């Protein structure tokens, strides 16, 4: 009896993982991509950061600049790390993953940053959210598309125009 029970447990342990286990592993790997993103950023490693993207991946950064392809992502980040982000620290604060298919996922990634030195007219990135589309490849999960947005705390929309002194209409 004991031998039969041990055989059943061994068979169950060596059986192929079901869809739930695969999805759990995939979500863990996507979360590792986010961890590697912060690590590469904080080392100011443009190549390491760009390597998280598919070869044809693209980035729309927090100010709306669109970088196309891994090579351009690396080149632009190397320039940014030379001064603007040289002393910056990126912290990932939340990751939510939703699978679109077994090979595609969307991740919403909240982040904070300190130490950026932006030029006048460009808002300093302090906190935001990334929307990433990730693709499963033979080598693991990579970012195919990335939209980054500065965030401000959400508050209710106004119910009317701002209160203040009324301005009389112009006289003709």
Molecular structure report:
It is built from four helices and six strands; from the N terminus they run H-H-H-E-E-H-E-E-E-E. The chain is an alpha+beta fold and 172 residues long. The chain has a single domain, classed as Nuclear Transport Factor 2, Chain: A, CATH 3.10.450. The protein has a six-stranded mixed beta sheet with strand order 2-1-6-5-4-3. A hairpin with a 5-residue loop joins strand 1 and strand 2. The radius of gyration is 23 Å and the shape is globular. The N terminus is likely disordered.
Count of individual helical segments: 4
* Strand order in space, largest sheet: 2-1-6-5-4-3
Helical coverage, percent range: 25-40%
- What's the number of domains? 1
Q: What is the rounded Rg? A: 23 Å
Any low-confidence stretches, pLDDT <50, length ≥5? 2-16
Q: How many strands?
A: 6
CATH class: Alpha Beta
Q: How are helices and strands ordered from N to C?
A: HHHEEHEEEE
Measured by DSSP, the beta-strand proportion falls in 25-35%
Termini separation: 102 Å
CATH topology: Nuclear Transport Factor 2, Chain: A
Average per-residue pLDDT, rounded, comes to 89
Class of secondary structure makeup: alpha+beta
Largest sheet: 6 strands, mixed
Query: Outline, from the CA principal axes?
Result: globular
By CATH, the architecture is named Roll
């Amino acid at each position: 009896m004991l031998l039969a029970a041990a055989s059943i447990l061994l068979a169950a342990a060596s059986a192929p993982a079901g869809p739930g286990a695969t999805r759990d592993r995939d979500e863990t790997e996507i979360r590792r991509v986010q961890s590697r993103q912060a690590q590469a950023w904080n080392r100011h490693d443009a190549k390491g950061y760009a390597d998280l993207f598919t070869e044809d991946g693209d980035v729309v950064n927090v100010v709306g600049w669109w970088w196309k392809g891994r090579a351009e992502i690396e080149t632009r980040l190397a320039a940014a790390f030379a001064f603007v982000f040289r002393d910056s620290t990126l912290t990932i604060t939340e990751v939510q993953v939703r699978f679109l298919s077994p090979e595609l996922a969307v991740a919403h990634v909240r982040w904070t940053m300190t130490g950026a030195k932006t030029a006048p007219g460009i808002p300093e990135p302090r906190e935001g959210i990334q929307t990433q589309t990730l693709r499963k490849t033979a080598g693991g999960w990579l970012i195919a598309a990335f939209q980054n947005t500065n965030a401000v705390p959400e508050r209710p929309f106004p119910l009317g125009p701002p209160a203040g002194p009324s301005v009389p209409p112009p006289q003709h």
